[in-house]
Amino acid sequence: MTTARGFAAFPPQRAGARFATSWWGRAWIQAMEDTSLDHGLLRKGRAYAKHGRLGPITVSPGRIAAVAESEYDVVVRVEQLTDAAWERFLDQVAAKSGHIAALLDRDMPHDLVEAAEDAAVPLLPAVGDLEPECSCPDWGHPCKHAAALCYQVSWLLDADPFVLLLMRGRGERDLIGALQEREAPVQEPSGVPAARAYGAGVPPLPEPPPYDVAYTPPALEPAPGVDVAALRVLAASAAGRARELLRRGRLPELSEYQDRVRLAAQHDLDLGLGAAVQAWRYGGADGLDVLDGTWTPPRRELARAQALLESGWEGERPPQVEAWRNRWTIGPVQLRYGRDGRWYPFTRREDEWWPAGPPERDPSVLLG
């Protein structure tokens, strides 16, 4: 039986603390921010969340709740999945042994979420899926208290994706129990039912491999026509890619140029790709795309960014922006909007714009 989970109130965070480092946590925040009708309230909500101005958080099927400022009851509702949708989701979990192992390791595989969406099971919320309520007099949608609650919940999601499943209607025990009741398909009568395997008194699956074991380069002897140093780099790269594939379940497809930049960035190779290497270190393939190309974002996204930029200068005159496509030049800084929905900072280095730091969804953060 699914029950609520309670989480202690978050204390004030250190300066520079970020929300949501996991991809599913960022998707949660984006759904809330894209629904917002007041970017000033979002800014206040971020400040409330970081200053620890909410009480303990309760997560239960279909809702998250907390008390703000010791007097306001704040709730955000999420639609629960139907029983039929849960059955389709369990089909996707059971289709690949690595899925349940990843969830138990507190990871949410991309391919599991994509397969669920293909089966008409929306795990991650989209625009309009989050319904905030608050007893405060503010008419914002969401108000600063509901926004703060969503921002803090992104930290809970980072730590445990089962929090998302609980909001959708079922928690970790429900999921494991449902999988235990299923029998694995067998080719011969000697097969072992899944329920017996899961209930054997041992973990349902072996522990995932130790991804963070230090890489040991192979012992390579010099030979005519063999570049031993290059082979060592390629071996280290292959090991790193394999580790990432195990961790994420898939790898992005890279062009020859992108892969060359990746190798230079990850293995400190001098291939004459200075700015490209810096862009990769800050943003991977997305950062490289922002460095090398331009595109015209939808007006709605640019208007949202403009509102965020102006809200970050409340009480002061916002800086003058020279805008061209996805590039905004603001004095000595240029902000470039990526196709991943984040702003990348650049600064002048002689006659070139160079990547100057990691990206942010809120452009005003990069000017603070």
From TrEMBL:
PANTHER family: SLR1429 PROTEIN. It holds the Pfam family SWIM. Keywords: Metal-binding, Zinc, Zinc-finger. GO terms for molecular function: zinc ion binding. This is Putative Zn finger protein. Residues 119-154 form the SWIM-type domain.
